[in-house]
Design a protein that fits this description.
Elements lengths: L4 E2 L1 H8 L3 H10 L5 E3 L2 E5 H8 L5
Antiparallel strand pairs: 1-3, 2-3
Length: 56
């Protein structure tokens, strides 16, 4: 089964920003993400649509 989420580190790499900037954007809601316990997860479909400019 293929993973359906990205980590914040993976998103930071994809966007070419630092880990701290990615976490800041996730916390502010600029990057579509959800809390799962203490971790942030970024659903692949939502992130890919957001990145393509199709909304969050």
């Amino acid at each position: 089964m293929e993973r359906q989420t990205y980590t914040v580190d993976e998103v930071a790499g994809a966007l070419g920003v630092s880990r701290s900037v990615a976490y800041e954007q996730v916390r502010e809601g600029a990057i579509p993400a959800r809390r799962l316990g203490k971790r942030w997860i970024i659903p692949k479909a939502r992130f890919d649509a957001w990145l393509a400019g199709e909304g969050a």
